[in-house]
Design goal:
The protein is mostly helical. The protein contains six helices and no strands. Helix 1 runs antiparallel to helix 2, helix 2 runs antiparallel to helix 5 and helix 3 packs antiparallel against helix 4.
């Protein structure tokens, strides 16, 4: 069974287009709703066990929405933007929550936030919003590793005597996620630059005939 691209049918052509109310998009919205619930459970209630369960469900929806979109041909333009946005919001918010709870160090939050801030600035500068680029394989591995590492880190905190074996396993996944995050951010930044240059070159090429026909 494939973990990446699961549900894809041979020869399938996406037809979701501009639809909004689809099952994958609703699943993604549920992932958004899990974020404030997680924050409340960990910071207000100190219910780390329930927090782990919420993270596990959020991680599951990240795979399920993509599977359903491909399997039932419900990939949409909104979903292409909404899904990675939900991942970003979830990962950053979870990192902030774990730092405030004393479970994770501040540098983990900085490593996650700074590259995303640079990408956001580049996207706004070049495209005034989302550049609409596909999620890379590295980005998918990064997200999966972080979505596994963060609940394991929280679960390790529930056990007595950290650091423990579970804590060590959690940091293996988090290390993979952090490296993947930096590599994905680097690749995504240059993909943004290349797409901007290509669009500018296309605009320039399209204006040249008109310029020759209307000399100054």
């Amino acid at each position: 069974m494939r973990l990446f691209g699961a549900g894809t049918r041979p020869g399938q052509v996406p037809t979701g287009g501009g639809r909004i109310l689809t099952i994958p998009n609703l699943i993604t919205v549920v992932r958004f709703l899990g974020v404030p619930l997680f924050v409340w459970l960990v910071l207000a209630r100190h219910e780390y066990g329930w927090g782990v369960l919420v993270l596990a469900l959020m991680g599951g929806t990240d795979w399920i929405d993509g599977y359903v979109a491909r399997r039932f041909n419900q990939a949409t333009e909104l979903g292409r933007v909404l899904d990675p946005l939900a991942d970003r919001v979830a990962l950053v918010t979870v990192a902030v929550t774990l730092v405030l709870a004393g479970v994770a160090p501040w540098w983990l939050l900085a490593v996650l936030v700074v590259p995303d801030a640079v990408l956001l600035a580049a996207s706004l500068a070049f495209f005034h919003w989302h550049p609409d680029l596909p999620v890379s394989r590295v980005g998918k591995i990064r997200t999966a590793a972080l979505l596994v590492g963060t609940p394991l880190l929280l679960l390790a905190e529930v056990l007595d005597g950290t650091p423990n074996v579970l804590w060590s396993i959690a940091w293996v996944f988090l290390a993979i996620g952090v490296v993947g995050h930096l590599v994905a951010a680097y690749n995504y930044f240059w993909a943004i630059v290349r797409k901007h240059r290509a669009e500018q070159a296309a605009k320039t090429a399209g204006q040249r005939p008109a310029d020759r026909g209307n000399p100054a």
